[in-house]
Design goal:
Two copies of one chain form a homodimer.
Chain A lengths: L9 E4 L8 H10 L4 E3 H5 L1 H10 L10 E4 L2 E4 L1 H11 L7 H25 L12 H29 L12 H16 L1 H7 L4 H11 L2 H8 L22
Parallel strand pairs in A: 1-2
Antiparallel strand pairs in A: 1-3, 3-4
Amino acid sequence: MADSSDSGAYDFWYWPSIPGRGEFVRLTLEACGIPYRDRAREDGAEAMMKDMAGHVEGPAYAPPYIGIDGQTVSQTANILMFLSERHDCGPTTMKTRYWLNQVQLTIMDVVAEAHNVHHPVAAMLYYEDQKAEAARAAEQFRKERIPGYFAWFEKALKAAAGDWLTGSRWSYADLSLFQLVSGLRYAFPKRIKSIEGDYPRLMKLCDLVAAMPELKDYFRSNRRIAFNNDGIFRHYPELDAA
Amino acid sequence: MADSSDSGAYDFWYWPSIPGRGEFVRLTLEACGIPYRDRAREDGAEAMMKDMAGHVEGPAYAPPYIGIDGQTVSQTANILMFLSERHDCGPTTMKTRYWLNQVQLTIMDVVAEAHNVHHPVAAMLYYEDQKAEAARAAEQFRKERIPGYFAWFEKALKAAAGDWLTGSRWSYADLSLFQLVSGLRYAFPKRIKSIEGDYPRLMKLCDLVAAMPELKDYFRSNRRIAFNNDGIFRHYPELDAA
């Protein structure tokens, strides 16, 4: 598969004003030193909708996606597995490949649930039109779901022979775990503060990613988009509690 | 990776009384002729919870999963990609592998949304405790989401050089599309009947899977679990409409 652009850089597309699912892909592109153009940030969301509609073979249902070879690679976990395999960035044995994909898909399940908290009735309605339902959803998410998922991540890290999910070397799924916890901390600061002590390995992993030399420049750059209340992780104080 | 059981058959685990996400895996195991033991149907759900808790390395967050080599392969799309690669069952080029995974992950998104329709507030509460919210969620799902996804599947099939997603040969994602449409037809019979004419390629694909010689015995057997209202696809007449 050849890159679609003359420069050899990937055409990466995602909503330009939120970190959302796109940020999971950006972290891996940046940490692995893979050249890319953040096309919707260059050309706008309308250009993205036009590009997406124009794909006949192998279309994307939704961003994020990479345009390559006349078709798309979309779905966050799929993009990450593809990049990791194609660029030999991270563990490559069959066992580790499917283990990382398993973790990544579980991370994406939490991402979807985090979005459902403020949009339980319908993604296409405003939060303001489903606030009562969101308050009920948030309570379950804070009390049951976050601890359940965090306990599973902690268990997975405890069995690893090192600080990372597959042992001694970081992978895209480690970067994604960092981004997930960061997003939850933005959305539910009181809740995360009250439980983080129960998950020392998970929290250490987050600290390690935050300090990665491969990401130092990126974190300081304007390529990194801050969490905000148009995205997946939103801070509505009324939905948070210790 | 060696099979964990002496017989060479996979240990497959999923809730024993519903088709749910497990059925996507069963269809591929059966159509590809891969030996497996449906462990929770043999030994019960309690045995599954015990087995799942016992996995230290590479644990599963939730069923379905395959126990193999002392760890698990879980997450439906991950299991299917793993089986397809390991058993050379379906297209194997890098391009087709990631395309099928992209489609499968989009199918799993619809599955999750179909469950959210009757459990919009929390998966851990009863439907009866969130009926009002479910009625609102169902309207959006019927009117906007199903047609949006179906249009995308139809577009993908239109670009394929044949009746299947990758052309002339079925893959696990084709089997999954059949199962998805079957589930939606069970849950929303009025709605599917009123729109199915708009998606002739998708409906033809479902007919082709239903008639596959590789699945003939399976469909007649008691290994195939019927849709029911304990599962992901549930028929609540009050949530359906043309």
